[in-house]
Amino acid sequence: MRKLPSMLTPKGLAERESSELLFTPCWLAMAPTLLILWGAAVVLGAACLPVKSSSLLPPVNFTIQAAGLAQVLLRWAPHPDQEQGAIKLGYHVRIHAPEDEEYETRNTVSSRAAPLHWGFSASVRTVSWEAPSLPASGWVSAELPAPPGSLGTSAANLTCSTRTVASNGTGARPYHVSLRCAWRAGSEAPEDTQYSLRYRYGPRTEECRRYSQDAQWRHVACWFPRTAIDGKGRDWLAVQVSGASARAAIRPYDRLFALPAIDHVNPPGNVTAKVQGSRLHIHWEKPLSAFPGHCFDYEVRIHNARKGYFQTEKMTTHEFTTTVNDVAKYCIDVRAAVSSVCREGGLWGEWSPAISVGDEARKPWTEWYPITLVAAVCLAFLASLACRTCHAWTKLFPPVPAPKSHIQDFAATVNYEKTGSRETESEVISYVEEPEALEDLVF
């Protein structure tokens, strides 16, 4: 047997073992509580420490530059102290002028089309692209000042229109688009002001070379017979009218046009019509356009020249048939518009040249019968009125009897006789006196 140390007696050893057995269950009971308290302390400590990656800082170096005709370029950079690894950054852009607009982007460069004669101003801030609940940063702003010159010197009432024209050559584009614009001189523009126009479509800019002038020899209209505009395009058309004068600064005027709103659709071609019995058949071809045939809506207008009413029908096909109940002359024309299936809805185009069909002179018997009946009734009434008028006249003015003549009436009888030998004719005239019965004359 292993000897116990001399310092411990059997009684002391028993007391020690008993105390160890009592202390061990207490530690086991307190262990879960201690673990909970330690975890809470770790979480609270982590929440109290500043976490640099979760705070959003505003962008820096925000600038606005004119990048072209009615076009600006917005640039900025992330804050240098912003950690981008843990959070995907985005940017909230707010346009203040010329019109309010808001949008979000992940890029640090943004291009916008806008008229610039009023100036341009905007603000931007940093946002979390995937966690919208995270507070955004503060705003930073920039401004592009308006060009020099009074607003009253700018061109006014600028309007533009486009039209599709067939190309004369055999190039890859069988159609091209012409552009016509008109404006009015500014109310505060000096008399020596001269205006010039240019347009931008996509990356291409072109200046006008064909102008019309007013009484003061100022340019007030422009025509581009051929442009770079796409006949089926959806982009904005930017137009600017600038001016120059020796007396004052002339502020330029910009305007953006949506192509569907200014495109003048050509009228349908080869409109034909014919009447077969009681059916009127109308046929036409699609307008001259870069759009295919299924991209058009049509309006057919039928004018009944005899009755003076119009009938208008809308359809998507190239023909129309209707029933006519009478024989008359019809005037027919058709117009077209690009359907919303192929492009945003625009304006109706011009009416096609009117064509006539039918015979207005020939009338059906159902119309002659009432006319004949009315004429017969009128004639009978007039005849009756005439008879009554004559009878009344006879009663008012009876005829006066005249005396008989005492001169005897003679009847001449001419007898012709021929002699056989001389073949001569002898004329014998005999007078026969007719007895006249004398009547008593009343005086």
Envelope shape? elongated
Taking Cα atoms only, what radius of gyration do you get, to the nearest Å?
A: 55 Å
> How would you classify the helix and strand content by structural class?
alpha+beta
Taking pLDDT < 50 over at least 5 consecutive residues as the criterion, the unreliable ranges are 1-14, 16-27, 42-53, 405-443
How far is the first residue's CA from the last residue's CA?
Answer: 210 Å
Beta-strand content bin:
35-45%
Number of helices: 3
Listing every helix as H and every strand as E from the N terminus to the C terminus, the arrangement reads: HEEEEEEEEEEEEEEEHEEEEEEEHEE
Q: How many beta strands in the DSSP annotation?
A: 24
How much helicity do the residues have?
A: 10-25%
Mean pLDDT: 79
Describe the strand arrangement of the main beta sheet, using strand numbers. 4-3-6-7
Main sheet makeup: 4 strands, antiparallel
Description of the molecule:
By secondary structure, this protein is α+β, with helices and mostly antiparallel strands. The chain contains three helices and 24 strands. The protein has a four-stranded antiparallel β-sheet, with no helix packed on it. It has a four-stranded antiparallel β-sheet with strand order 8-9-13-12, with no helix packed on it. The protein is elongated, with a radius of gyration of 55 Å. 18% of the residues are buried. The model is unreliable at 1-14, 16-27, 42-53 and 405-443 (pLDDT under 50).
